[in-house]
Amino acid sequence: MPLIVRDHTWTQNLSTVYISVPLKAVKTANVHIICTDDYLKVSFPPFLFEVFLFASINEEKSEARIGNGAAVFTLQKRRDEMWEQLCTNIDKEKQKQIREQAVLKVQEKAVEKSKTKATRIQQEKKYALETMMKLESEERERIQKRKDEVCARATAELDFWRETQRKTAKGNENQIKEQRTSTHDNKPVPQKIKHANTSPADTALVKTDNTITGQMRSKQKTKDLPAPRSAGCIQISFTPRVFPTALRESRVPEEEEWLKKQAEARRAIDTDLAELDDLTEDERNPDWLKDKGDKLFMAGNFLAAVNAYNLAIKLNRKMPALFSNRAACHLKLRNLHKAIEDSSQALELLTPAVSANASARLKAHVRRGTAFCQLQLYVEGLQDYQKALEMDPHNAALRADTEQIRELIQGSTPRSKDEN
């Protein structure tokens, strides 16, 4: 049954009503508000504030602000008048009807808000798609323009190269003709006479001329040919499947993910074993490490005790006492979130709940509840203390602490809870 909040305050003027509701150290995310023209409800478990307004308000113009441990409502009146009181006196049947109407109205608003959000998301997706298509079109045009520019430049360079080659070939031909002309001018003996009375010097000269002409033509052909392409070799390797399952029945992504997780687990185990190579025989015993951590805790060396428990947990993660004792060390060191994690881990290992592990579960609940209270999460801390009290109902100190936390939640005690 929820706890009704009665320590609220309210003021008014002709047009506005101001209501302040204390939130009792509750997180803002856990506050739920329902407001209609004649009804206001604020729910923050385990507390509830409900009021049936004296007159109608303008819900659309009203607003709520949550912060600094209070919810402040600014309600705009429908008519400018002074209210005699904040609440109106109506029977339970009428109250039930107003509650149902308020819930229906909130649900309708939620559906309408969901539809509006879906429409807005659809419009945003449409706009994003149009923008993306426009950007892609501009990118294609830019690439095509770049291609055209490169093609035009390459064509111009090719034409220039061809013209240069043509001029070079023409110059070589003219040079060959000039060499032949000069040779014939110096030796005017016709080629036909070579078979009749040709001297050895004339024969050598003709052979030299032919050799020079052939070399120049060969050099010209070599310049016309493009450079040979570079050769390469692509290595392809195929990895056989690990699972001997028919392809139509296999699930390749799940198998690959499983193999990946197995490899990571093996690497983690290898790393942990490598770290444990330098330990002595006693230091490889988790029970010995637990006793050492307990002695360090009793001596007040909490950080060294945490190190001992850490090493023991690496060797054996199935001992709940290691996590529970490390949680006690973290409480002393003010590592409250780590204390909550270790206590929760210890409670997970202490399953099923039997009488043999009741004492260990009680310690874990008390330590986690203490960490919650030191974080000012009194509701969560009260739940752990209540569970511990169920296991040991005759513990006077535990009962007194539970009552103190309950008083803190109800706002009757100003100081904060700090359990050791």
TrEMBL record:
Q: Which domain of life is it from?
A: Eukaryota
Q: Which Pfam families match?
A: CS (PF04969)
**Which terms are listed as keywords in the entry?**
Cell projection, Cytoplasm, Neurogenesis, Nucleus, Repeat, TPR repeat
Q: Which GO molecular function annotations are given, in alphabetical order?
A: nuclear estrogen receptor binding
SUPFAM superfamilies per the UniProt record, alphabetical = HSP20-like chaperones (SSF49764), TPR-like (SSF48452)
Q: Where is the composition biased (Basic and acidic residues)?
A: 175-187
Q: Where is the CS domain?
A: 3-87
- Residue ranges annotated as coiled coil are none
Any one GO CC term of this protein is: dynein axonemal particle
Q: Where is this region: Disordered?
A: 165-195
CDD domains noted in UniProt: p23_DYX1C1_like
Q: What are the BP-aspect GO terms?
A: cilium assembly; cilium movement; determination of left/right symmetry; epithelial cilium movement involved in determination of left/right asymmetry; epithelial cilium movement involved in extracellular fluid movement; heart development; inner dynein arm assembly; left/right axis specification
Where does the record say this protein resides?
Cell projection, Neuron projection; Dynein axonemal particle; Nucleus
InterPro entries xref list: CS_dom (IPR007052), CS_DYX1C1 (IPR037894), Dynein_assembly_factor_4 (IPR052004), HSP20-like_chaperone (IPR008978), TPR-like_helical_dom_sf (IPR011990), TPR_rpt (IPR019734)
The record's TPR repeats, renumbered to this chain, cover 362-395
Q: What is this protein called?
A: Dynein axonemal assembly factor 4
- Species of provenance: Danio rerio
